[in-house]
Amino acid sequence: MMGENPQRIPHDHAIVRACQAHYIPHVDDTSPRHTLFVGRLNYDTTKDDLVTLFETYGDLASVTLVRDNVTGLSKGYGFVTYKRSSAAQLAYRRAHKKVLHERPILVDYESGRTMKGWIPRRLGGGFGGRKESGQLRFGCRERPFVEPRITVSTFKTKTNLAPSISGLA
């Protein structure tokens, strides 16, 4: 192992699985503008809880709580589809950060059918992550992409000044 290029050796099996996986997007006959992603759910939240919360904004077409295939336990997110896009817009505005089972939830539009080339987080895409872990994906309404305040030209200018400033000390 010593002497090998460490950048060519995956440091974790999840990276290997993600690189070898092939994503087949979900095919649905509903409009993606009618479908909301609901995340950060308490693991005790049920499909009925989602129905009760989201039916106040309009007529629902479907509600899906995503569960682990093996254990059957909730994965902490789901999808809510409305019959009308106006109801989805209302829920998007009003349900975001609403507290459900003692947790503020995240409500955003479904990205899988609206963004070209979208792949889920489990395959190395998606949004989220924490900057402390070095896995931040910019996007989503919680962490939108923001242009850096320091541009490359500003950085070059400041680094060129550094030798003359350090010479003063």
TrEMBL record:
InterPro entries, A to Z: Nucleotide-bd_a/b_plait_sf, RBD_domain_sf, RRM_dom, U1_U11-U12_snRNP_70-35kDa
Keywords, ordered alphabetically: Nucleus, RNA-binding
UniProt GO molecular function: mRNA binding; snRNA binding
Entry superkingdom: Eukaryota
Subcellular location(s) per record: Nucleus
One of the protein's GO biological processes: mRNA splicing, via spliceosome
Domain RRM: 34-112
Major location (coarse): nucleus
Any GO CC annotation of this UniProt entry: precatalytic spliceosome
Protein name, UniProt field: RNA-binding domain-containing protein
